[in-house]
């Protein structure tokens, strides 16, 4: 008995259900319309974004918060081109994403048809892999393959482009099977020989540093990392993408190194004799000029992506494998050894006392972002998820917020995509309706994707947004102060337009404002009480503030600029 | 900088050539020669890529990340047989005809079409021998020349 025939569009929806996808983000349009019809009857929750870029970041926020696949759906042409930023963002930060795009009908492809773009070509360098479907029968199989590629190995975005006639083609459902992909076999288990070599180096090290990043979070290896660090007393620094992989506040945690990292984290690497790098990629924001990076250290570099190993720094011990297996292997091989790191840890703790992160919040003076952040953290839940934009506020959050759990810090690290915060927060809240989701954004960033506030209101997604309004593109202004003789070319926005409170209210959210120190606690208390709709707090802050410490791009991590006076060193 | 020969086994899927070429060009590397064709295995093609690089390690790793790339081998020039095909159309006249055909056939080229004012030669062989033929016939006026790209195979198992 042959099964009832289904359209390609029905197969798309049925495949998503088959893969237990519960929430997707998107925006309809001509070429993808057939897929929206069966979606109408599906239990899958579709969240209607106001711009495709927003829908892409929502899917990323969902994926970053849960560690699971985020799904976004868009139409052909501009729908697909608007996804290029979130796709590239997901590629840089290794976020598992599935993008489904409509395409013009097969026979019109290449004819410059209405809303046609060469989506597969345009997204080739923005995805881990992409597909153009040419027969509806392939839909379930390809979508399953796409999920497999997106979520395994080094995670990343996969796009599936489906022409409109294929969405309308009637075929039978063929049960998808995870067939062997001959060119895709991620190495998960590390070579034991390499683990032995690494363990031997660790046993001999006097000043080891665990330099860990997003790979720990993707691999869900935070507990193993905790065991490795605490059992053998190895200090830890966490990169921007790795914040929360090891708990801040632990005596072994020295937090973020790099361009705006704290002095101790950056300097610990410079003084270290052994870098144990796991799930990191020696990003330029961490290393500054790699020639001067960790010159006294031998390097163990473990990553699931072989192309990261030796890309920037040739390691003494290269290890290809999943972070969890690597760390478990190291713990086994180190069992019973007693590392003599007490002096080293004491040295770092003394450094931390001598070079603390500091700011001065005057009683009557303008609000300082670090102060506001610390006050907010006192009032918010332990498992609150913080979602940031890009720039000064992002660096201050990473510096001053205490991250104690993985997947509680979402930001655009690699691509540095302004506008990420608000839509990504919506995605995170869609995954966790009952957790506090805090979108902590700058005014420049907020203006890039603020229309998604309407999405939050209409979909009853009660995110809490704080817009740090310094009336400027703050990081641009900071660079113009330091490197361009205070010539503030095109970096000034204005403190007054828009009226953020009125804007929030007009978009169905509650708008609040804080200006003085005495406002902070009561406004945040009010913000955290509102759980039936989104709420936006405008926080007016000082445009003259700069983020320190700072190591200028291309500089040496041996020369850390600690404050404004220190700029004379440049 | 020395010449490197990469032999890349790929799945015969649409877009695979674009993916490989863009991965190489993204890093700013030039491709001296690229040849693609089917293999003895159904659904698999082989690309032979000749490029000039200090080190191909990073490019190899990046290419390996492509889902449709199955295997990459860097061929050792010492143990490699190389071949390339060439088609060359050259001007001739009554006075030069004999000498052109003689020179070409002594070089190992085969005349495949001879008209009153042109001759077409085909030659298969090592790239440097094809270069020689080109230089030899240049004085007579080459009208058009096409080379098929270098293909290579390792001599040892």
UniProtKB/TrEMBL annotation, chain B:
- Any one Gene Ontology molecular-function term assigned to this protein's record: acetolactate synthase regulator activity
Q: Which domain of life is it from?
A: Bacteria
Q: Which reaction does it catalyse?
A: 2 pyruvate + H(+) = (2S)-2-acetolactate + CO2
Keywords (A to Z) from UniProt: Amino-acid biosynthesis, Branched-chain amino acid biosynthesis, Transferase
Report the Gene3D superfamilies cross-referenced here.
Answer: 3.30.70.260, ACT-like. Chain A, domain 2
Pathway recorded for this protein: Amino-acid biosynthesis; L-isoleucine biosynthesis; L-isoleucine from 2-oxobutanoate: step 1/4; Amino-acid biosynthesis; L-valine biosynthesis; L-valine from pyruvate: step 1/4
**The keyword Membrane is assigned to this record:** no
Q: Which CDD domains match?
A: ACT_AHAS
The enzyme's E.C. designation = 2.2.1.6
In Gene Ontology terms, what is a biological process of this protein?
A: L-valine biosynthetic process
Q: Where is the ACT domain?
A: 5-77
Enzyme class, spelled out: transferase
The family database entries (InterPro entries) matched by this protein are listed as: Acetalactate_synth_ssu, Acetolactate_synth/TF_NikR_C, Acetolactate_synth_ssu_C, ACT-like_dom_sf, ACT_dom, AHAS_ACT, AHAS_small-like_ACT
Please verify whether the record's keywords include ATP-binding.
no
CC per GO annotation: cytosol
What functional role does this protein have? Answer: Catalyzes the conversion of 2 pyruvate molecules into acetolactate in the first common step of the biosynthetic pathway of the branched-amino acids such as leucine, isoleucine, and valine.
* Family of the protein in this entry: Belongs to the acetolactate synthase small subunit family.
Its quaternary organisation is: Dimer of large and small chains.
**Full protein name:** Acetolactate synthase small subunit
């Amino acid at each position: 008995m042959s099964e009832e025939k289904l359209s390609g569009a029905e197969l798309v929806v049925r495949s998503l259900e088959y893969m237990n996808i519960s929430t997707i983000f998107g925006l309809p349009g001509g070429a993808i319309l057939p897929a929206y019809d069966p979606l109408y009857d599906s239990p899958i929750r579709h969240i209607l974004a106001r711009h495709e870029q927003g829908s892409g970041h929502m899917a990323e926020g969902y994926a970053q918060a849960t560690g699971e696949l985020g799904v976004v759906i868009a139409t052909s042409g501009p729908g697909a081109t608007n996804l290029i930023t979130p796709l590239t963002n997901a590629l840089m930060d290794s976020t598992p994403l599935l993008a489904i795009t409509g395409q013009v009908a097969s026979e019109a492809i290449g004819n410059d048809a209405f809303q046609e773009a060469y989506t597969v070509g345009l997204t080739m360098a923005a995805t881990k892999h992409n597909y153009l479907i040419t027969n509806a029968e392939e839909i379930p199989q390809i979508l399953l393959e796409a999920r497999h590629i997106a979520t395994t190995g080094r995670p990343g975005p996969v796009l599936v482009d489906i022409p409109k006639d294929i969405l309308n083609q009637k075929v039978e459902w063929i049960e998808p099977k995870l067939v062997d992909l001959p060119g895709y076999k991620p190495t998960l288990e590390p070579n034991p020989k390499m683990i032995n070599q690494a363990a031997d180096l660790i046993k001999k090290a006097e000043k080891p540093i665990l330099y860990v990043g997003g790979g720990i979070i993707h691999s869900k290896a935070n507990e193993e990392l905790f065991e490795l660090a605490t059992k053998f007393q190895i200090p830890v620094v966490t990169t921007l993408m790795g914040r929360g992989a090891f708990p801040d506040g632990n005596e072994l945690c020295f937090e973020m190194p790099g361009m705006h990292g704290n002095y101790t984290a950056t300097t610990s690497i410079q003084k270290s004799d052994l870098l144990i790098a796991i799930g990191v990629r020696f990003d330029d924001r961490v290393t500054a000029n790699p020639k001067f990076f960790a010159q006294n250290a031998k390097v163990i570099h473990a990553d699931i992506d072989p192309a990261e190993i030796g890309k920037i720094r040739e390691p003494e011990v290269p290890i290809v494998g999943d972070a969890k297996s690597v760390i478990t292997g190291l713990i086994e091989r180190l069992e019973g050894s007693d590392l003599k790191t007490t002096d080293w840890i004491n040295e770092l703790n003394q450094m931390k006392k001598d070079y603390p992160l500091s700011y001065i919040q005057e009683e009557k003076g303008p609000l300082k972002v670090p102060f506001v952040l610390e006050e907010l953290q006192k009032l918010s839940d332990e498992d609150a998820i913080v979602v940031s934009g890009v720039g000064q506020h992002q660096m201050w959050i990473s510096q001053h917020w205490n991250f104690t759990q993985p997947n509680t810090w979402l930001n655009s690290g690699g691509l540095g995509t302004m506008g990420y915060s608000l839509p990504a927060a919506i995605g995170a809240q869609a995954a966790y309706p009952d957790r506090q989701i805090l979108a902590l954004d700058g005014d420049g960033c907020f203006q890039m994707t603020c229309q998604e506030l309407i999405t939050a209101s209409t979909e009853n997604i009660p995110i809490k947004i704080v817009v740090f309004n310094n009336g400027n593109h703050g990081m641009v202004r900071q660079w113009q102060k330091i490197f361009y003789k205070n010539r503030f070319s095109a970096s000034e926005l204005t403190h007054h337009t828009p009226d953020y409170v009125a804007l929030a209210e007009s978009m169905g959210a509650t708008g609040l404002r804080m200006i003085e120190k005495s406002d902070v606690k009561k406004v945040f208390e009010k913000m955290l009480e509102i759980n039936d709709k989104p709420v936006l707090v405008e926080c007016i802050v000082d445009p003259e503030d700069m983020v320190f410490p700072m190591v200028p791009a291309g500089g040496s991590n041996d020369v850390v600029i600690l404050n404004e006076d220190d700029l004379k060193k440049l | 900088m020395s010449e490197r020969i990469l032999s890349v086994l790929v799945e015969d899927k649409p877009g695979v050539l674009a993916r490989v070429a863009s991965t190489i060009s993204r890093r700013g590397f030039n491709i001296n020669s690229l040849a693609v064709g089917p293999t003895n295995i159904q659904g698999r093609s082989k690309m032979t890529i000749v490029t000039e690089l200090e080190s191909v390690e990073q490019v190899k790793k990046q290419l390996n990340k492509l889902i449709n790339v199955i295997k990459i081998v860097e061929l050792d020039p010492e143990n490699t047989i190389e071949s390339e095909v060439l088609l060359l159309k050259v001007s001739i006249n009554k006075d030069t005809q004999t000498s052109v055909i003689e020179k070409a056939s002594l070089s190992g080229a085969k005349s495949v079409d001879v008209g009153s004012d042109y001759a077409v030669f085909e030659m298969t062989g090592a790239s440097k021998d094809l270069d020689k033929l080109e230089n030899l016939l240049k004085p007579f006026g080459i009208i058009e020349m096409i080379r098929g790209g270098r293909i290579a195979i390792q001599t040892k198992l």
